[in-house]
Amino acid sequence: MARTLVAVRGLHRFLLTEGLARDDPARELAGPRGERPLPKALTLAEVERLLAAPVGDEPGALRDRAMLELLYACGLRISELVGLDVDDVDTHQRVVRARGKGGRERFVPLGRVAAEAVDGWRVRGRPGLCPHGAALMLNQRGGRLTRQGAWKVLTRYAERAGLAGRVSPHTLRHSFATHLLEGGADVRVVQELLGHASVRTTQVYTRVTDTRLRAVYDLAHPRSGSGDDTVGVAGDDITADDDDAPPRQGWR
User: Fold this and answer.
1) Active-site residue flag, 77
2) Which H or E run includes 105?
3) What angle is formed at CA 128 by the lines to CA 125 and CA 132, rounded to 5 degrees?
4) What does the pLDDT look like over 203-214, one tens digit per residue?
């Protein structure tokens, strides 16, 4: 359709240029909108490998562990993560105040594992770099970590976890939303947690979970018409038993 539209527009421009037409009726024709690609989420096992990649108790490892845990536990954008101040994360009440697009604030629950990682960074790592500054995430010089710096950290640990080329700045955010919906969370709740202005933006994740459900059905049901009468595929993470609990319970 898009190529046909280009040809029609070209024809009418030619006719107008040559004086064979008085106006161009194709000028206002809008092209077809391309289908929005589905967000790419990691499996729970892949998320676990990524979050376990920072090893050690030196300041860099403590910061990176806290950074990755916050991204997945709260579904933060990279810009929201690096914009956090120390006072924005309450590890006692286990809540994070995030500032999203347009300066909109939202409060997101913080899981126990992520809270412990943030406390480890604030108590044992951060004071040696900048004990009195406002920024939560710091670079090696004690300044606020930049988006580019956070992206480099994420890329390094993705490679270490065997996920090179699979992780983008939004991957943990996508995984956060997808895993919540797969766990039964209401799409309106996920909308609030992600800070989306419209639920239509959040509904793209329901297409991801629908795709997964279709794949499970085709593989598991003997009369699905998929051409494979095998019930389930051992070792395939999309056919994992629903009774298998995630490696870490509850919110991160």
Assistant:
1) yes
2) strand 105-109
3) 105
4) 777 776 666 667
What pLDDT digit, counting tens, does each position of 132-165 carry? 889 999 999 999 999 999 999 999 999 999 999 8
The rounded distance, in Å, linking the Cα atoms of 16 and 119 is 69
Q: Is 221 a residue of the active site? A: no
Between the two ends of the chain, the Cα-to-Cα distance in Å is 46
193-206, pLDDT tens digit by residue?
A: 898 888 887 877 77
Q: Decide: helix, strand or coil at residue 138.
A: strand
Domains annotated for the chain, with CATH where assigned, are: 44-169 (1.10.443.10)
92 among known catalytic residues = no
Sheet containing strand 105-109, edge to edge, reads: 89-90, 95-99, 105-109
The structure's pTM equals 0.70
Tell me how far apart the alpha carbons of residues 89 and 81 are, in angstroms, rounded to a whole number: 11
Catalytic residue among 65, 77, 174, 252: 77
CA distance 93 to 134: 20
